[in-house]
Amino acid sequence: MDKLRTVRGVHDTLPEVLDKHNKVIDKGLKISNQYCYSQIETPIFEFSEIFIKPLGKSSDIVTKENYIFKDRSDDELMLRPEGTSGVVRAFLNAGLIQEVPQRFSYFGPMFRYERPQKGRLRQFKQFGIECLGLSNPMADVEVISVGYDYLQELGLINSLTLKINTLGDEESRLNYRKVLIEYLNDYKSNLSEDSVKRLSQNPLRILDSKNQNDQKILIKAPNILDYLNQESKDRFEKVTEGLEALGIDYYIDKNLVRGLDYYCHTAFEFITEKLGAQGTVLAGGRYDGLSKMLGGPDIPGVGWAAGVERLSLMVESDFSNKPDVVLLGVSEEYNTSLLYIMKSLVKSGLKVEIFYTGSMSKKFKRANKINASFAIILGEEEIKNKVIKLKNLFSGSEELIRLETAIETIKNFSNN
Ligand code: ATP
Ligand code: MG
Questions:
Q1: Which of 135, 330, 363, 365 fits 379 for a cystine, CB–CB 3.0-4.6 Å?
Q2: By alpha-carbon position, which residue is closest to atom 23 of ligand 1?
Q3: Taking the model in full, what pTM does it have?
């Protein structure tokens, strides 16, 4: 059976769970569409530089988690680890820079070679939005607000907390970088191996470390908010004021950074205690530098991505595949007529399952098991009189009636 297993960290999604995924995605598409975000789809694989350039050569996603491969033309391709780079590339490629702002939503599978755990997979789905062409801090507020409404629609907002922070502009970040390096250098011998590496490559990313010892050292680390220039400070203030005006609660986490190179200014995450270590369900921020990193003009952007599997772990399932009516013949010779009847029922909007084989008692057992409300039964007498037998499976009552009448009865029942 070993051969039937999926690859580690990659799963089949059976109907009941997929139904939850689809509902999580549908709600996202619906709410973001009300905010005029239109759905876009980009390829699942791209030239690897589309991700490597903006994410940064030293980011985990690029160094450790990538699925890079060469195709038959010797092009180096990468399965997408995230959605933003592809959306911005598509926006540039479509020549939409004169038509900003542009608001996009997307969903689909992402791929990261991570250590699989509950809520951490190697193939997982994200739903996300991107707002391109607006540097106004109110766009950050809008984007966070769409996320807030989305999580509220899913019934999850009360079990989530919004953390926000700012990474400031480049000047502020450089100032902060210096003092952060000075502070962390004193603890160099106690930092994790990864963090020591990052100390020279990208020290800000150490703030994102999941290592407990690192986190202890970081408690007393200098606060970026103390190193922002006036412009970055004012900007952050406008964002928090905007959130307050909308009644969106947040707390500022000075160590919140996004692990990718293209972020600046606002960074935020909605987190829960309910999913253990994989508590971030929706995360995003501002990425004004991304367009330029891809070779395009300076186009500001802000957006977020939500983990569909993580959100699905939190929403209740109301999955049902219960038919309105089941069809059964007293013998197999009636199956063709039943298939013909099935078509009329489906055309009338009903949900139908047909039982082809087995004894009558077996068929009724299955009808009960799947919780069907009605059965349509066909035998010699029914065919002769051009009627069907409609059985109400709850009351047990039966009548010989015309198919059209039966359809009306079933429809009235299903609508009540
Ligand atoms: P984490 O801190 O949990 O590693 P991240 O910062 O890498 O998350 P992002 O790149 O911001 O996550 O992706 C946005 C969202 O996508 C996350 O908040 C999470 O819900 C989801 N996500 C990220 N990686 C995975 C994964 N390997 N498996 C399942 N969901 C994921
Ligand atoms: Mg991660």
A1: 330
A2: 307
A3: 0.94
